[in-house]
Amino acid sequence: VEKTALLYEGKAKLVYTTTDEDVVWIEYKNSATAFNGEKKADITGKGRLNNEITSLLFSMLHEAGVENHFLERKSETEQIVRKVDIIPLEVVVRNITAGSMAKRLGIEEGIPIQEPVVEFYYKDDSLGDPLITEDHIEILKLATPAEVDMLKHVARKVNAILSKFFASKDLRLVDFKLEFGKTNEGKIILADEVSPDTCRLWDIATNEKLDKDVFRRNLGSLTDAYEKILERIGGEQHV
Ligand code: C5P
Known about the structure:
This protein has helices at 46-63, 99-105, 134-139, 145-167, 213-216, 222-233, and strands at residues 3-9, 13-18, 23-28, 31-34, 39-42, 70-73, 78-82, 85-86, 89-96, 112-122, 131-132, 171-182, 188-191, 199-203. It is an alpha+beta fold. The chain folds into two domains: 3-82, 2-Layer Sandwich (Phosphorylase Kinase, domain 1); 85-221, ATP-grasp fold, B domain (D-amino Acid Aminotransferase, Chain A, domain 1), CATH 3.30.470. Helix 1 (46-63) runs parallel beside helix 6 (222-233). The two termini are 31 Å apart. The chain binds cytidine-5'-monophosphate. Cytidine-5'-monophosphate is lined by residues 90, 92, 98-101, 129, 175-177, 198-200, 212. Its EC number is 6.3.2.6.
């Protein structure tokens, strides 16, 4: 396939149509954003790192039986994926308290959660991506109750696979966000990305943060952190 026209520009990616109507071409940008776009920076190497890490993780998930949109990495910063209509829901899974849940519930970060928690956020920048309930999802017609059950089931399965994988690389999967989309045939599959932009990953021994919190909280070099993740999960090294 070849890329044809720009379809959409997001905060972290450019999406192009291709010569195949069932395939889109994604280019990962170097821009980092946080707090609903309030904090922004351009970070050399970020696009390459996320493209490479997402490609590795989606291939691994595919092999583990989780259908997803990833097809092939095309260059350092580009990949092709199956075209889907993204469901405007962010499905968050949490194994350890952190981030917005710790803040919302007034609890400390870093406390293990016995049974992983699944949350839904409504993807809407103007509303600030609010936390929503399953009833809200039904009212907004974002997904049917059966689809919501399926999303939770797949999210838990992804959590089990990724937690085990990262633990084998001495990384703790604290929490992460997934997005799903509908293919042209109407099938719901995992889409978007799985990277240190969308996961919290802590070093198992030191609890060092190796994810986007490094940027959100000014903890040091984001690319050094992402490079460590890539190195540990077995990608190419660019030193
Ligand atoms: O901010 P919060 O604690 O709700 O984030 C939970 C997880 O979801 C984190 O791993 C974060 O990186 C991810 N997330 C994301 N995109 C968002 C919101 C959260 O990838 N818009």
